[in-house]
Amino acid sequence: xxxxxxxxxxxxxxxxxxxxxxxxxxxxxxxxxxxxxxxxxxxxxxxxxxxxxxxxxxxxxxxxxxxxxxxxxxxxxxxxxxxxxxxxxxxxxxxxxxxxxxxxxxxxxxxxxxxxxxxxxxxxxxxxxxxxxxxxxxxxxxxxx
Length: 145
Prior knowledge:
Its cofactor is Mg(2+). This protein is mainly α. It has seven helices and no strands.
């Protein structure tokens, strides 16, 4: 059985549909950042029980802008036209936030990546998120190089 977590939340919390194009790219990135973080935390916890500080370190290594930039760069050939449009919309969005431990380019690419994740989540495409992350993690880890 395939359950979409957003659909469950919508039903359980009586959330009404909103046209996806009405969300700003930074709003999509806000959602995408949290969806990606939840996926990462789930992955590291289910990889094995360990100390919380180690779990935080493993998660932060995968959630940093530098890694997200690398991830989206290896995924570009996998994205369809709409996904590329959404990524670029997020990458090019003006933000008052500054990169903390990343270059400007890495930060902008990470924002685009998070925008894409938020977009896919809010359009009920969780399976596509998992598909892209599986491919991306595999490529970044050198399995497809």
